[in-house]
Design a protein that fits this description.
Blueprint: H1 2-11, E1 16-17, E2 23-28, E3 59-62, E4 86-88, E5 93-95, E6 113-116, E7 125-130, H2 132-136, E8 146-152, E9 158-163, E10 169-174, H3 175-181, E11 196-202, E12 210-215, E13 220-228, H4 238-259
Antiparallel strand pairs: 1-2, 2-11, 3-13, 4-7, 5-6, 6-13, 7-12, 8-11, 8-13, 9-10, 9-12
């Protein structure tokens, strides 16, 4: 019963605005299918159940599964070539599973994920994910208006910071704000309300080219990162998808009775 209550609260979460009103969390989206084989079932609404961008969606995805080779001993690493997406500053790594005092896998995630700092890395840790290389292949005016990520065991000391092409800070989305929005508990490694797929949409005037994950504790964990160009935020909310599923089930039952 408690789990149902938590899910109901997540589905009903209202829009929450952050500094400068540049970005808002529209809702948490939990895919009903298994996402990318990582068993979490949490990915972007713009991706298929296999964590592949829907054709024509203008969305690019990073699952840290080293899809193009070159992974570490666990087969984890960046999917995207470094000339398109680069990670700079701080310390970070990719792994599977939880290691006490180092990193906790996002709830239900048996695949690869990114985290920082590393076991020997210092705090605070700030790592910038820069999409300038990717955007340069799409034209001089290209920028990003959407970020989605599976944010694992969100802590009050975790923050996301967004920058434009000039390196100016657009906005900061704090872990404390997300925890408050979704009625979560800081650092909880299993609850849906603290392990959330967060969708962030930006206005045309405040689109970004890079974002940084910042933490003053251990650790920051994320997976199934999706970025989009001119992506509409008119996507189904979990409640709408559930109603659609009920409707389809009813239609199937009616057809079955008719055949009988």
């Amino acid at each position: 019963m408690k789990n149902l209550f938590v899910k109901a609260m997540l589905a009903a979460a209202a829009v929450a605005s952050f500094s400068a009103h540049a970005v808002s969390v529209n809702y948490t989206y939990t895919n009903t299918n298994v996402a990318g084989g990582d068993q979490s079932g949490k990915t972007s609404p713009f991706l298929t159940a296999a964590n592949v961008a829907t054709p024509g969606s203008n969305v690019f995805v990073e699952t840290f599964g080293a899809r193009n080779g070159g992974g570490n001993s666990q087969g984890c690493g960046l999917d995207t070539p470094s000339n398109l997406v680069s990670l700079n500053g701080g310390t970070y790594d990719f792994r599977k599973g939880t290691v006490a005092g180092v990193a906790a896998a996002p709830a239900g995630d048996s695949g690869c994920y990114a985290y920082g700092p590393t076991a020997n890395g210092s705090l605070p840790d700030v790592v910038t994910v820069n999409y300038s290389g990717l955007l340069s292949t799409l034209g001089s005016n290209a920028s990003l208006n959407y970020l989605g990520l599976y944010y694992g065991s969100i802590d009050t000391y975790n923050d996301l910071m967004f920058y434009n092409a000039n390196g100016d800070l657009i906005t900061t989305v704090t872990g404390a704000s997300l925890i408050a929005q979704f009625n979560g508990t800081s650092g909880n490694q299993s609850a849906d309300s603290s392990n959330i797929y967060v969708n962030l949409f930006f206005s045309p005037a405040e689109q970004f080219t890079s974002f940084a994950f910042s933490t003053t504790g251990r650790a920051f964990e994320m997976d199934n990162v999706a970025v989009g160009i001119n992506v509409s935020n008119n996507v189904p909310e979990p409640g709408s998808l559930a109603l659609l599923g009920i409707g389809l089930a009813g239609l199937a039952a009616a057809r079955k009775r008719k055949k009988a």
